[in-house]
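Below sits our specimen:

——
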Amino acid sequence: MARRLKLAGLIDLLWVEQPGEILELARDQRLDREFLSSGPWLNRWLARGIRRHLQLDGHPLPPVAPIGDERPNATQTTLARHLEGPPCSQADLEALAAYLARGDAPDGPGVLVQGIIGRRFNGDYRANPQSYQDACLLDRAARTLNPWRQWRWRRSGDVDQARARLAEKVQRDATALHATAIALHNLVAALERMRQLVVEHPHALARITPAAAASRCLVAPETVLRQARTHGNHGAGSFAPGTLALFRLETARARSLRHDIAFLTHTWSHCPAAAWVPRLLSEAWRKAGERPAQGG
């Protein structure tokens, strides 16, 4: 059931977590990602924060850009084609399998995943603890609803510096920047779920199929935002120019295990990695099943 937080002149937020309502609103072109400075004060503040953090050279990163005139747009189509074929190199697949089966990666799979994604765009990409820390900071800054933190980050310049370092690693490719700084966190979380499944159920690798494991452990973005461009009514609630709708994708996905929720399939903002992510997870699980598991 949708929740509403509305205080005249201060804030107007609509949380939506039912799968059907999310997909309907995700298709509704009265809700966009332009994030204009409109609506109550806190909404304008949040919109400015999104525009400030999720941009490169003054332009929004493709996955948070407005709908535009063409969908799927050229970036979505190109990236989807680029992600066809083997999901990663054999060496990277072996590293993922070692993490799932034996926990080989004491600090978690973050650096490994960032490197795998980065090499889809730049064959020489090398992730490290600093680059992963930068990605975590940029992701937190883009998602926080805390004005005080936003103000502190703006004063310190830490987020801008992190984004600049990450952009240089991918030759300032906006799509690659989003993939290696924002999108990677859902894949990291999914692999952590897979590892936990192996730890808690020692025979999981033998008894759960790769496809079932990928579906069970898939992680959607916790929250995806849209901004109302006009007045409208919906079963989830009414909205006005500047209303921010927060789609709780992971909550909805967990209830249904539907991939179309996780990737907003069949909507104008669908994720080009909708096939690549489950394929990578499935292959990693399959490969891990070929080696001895170790709990703990």
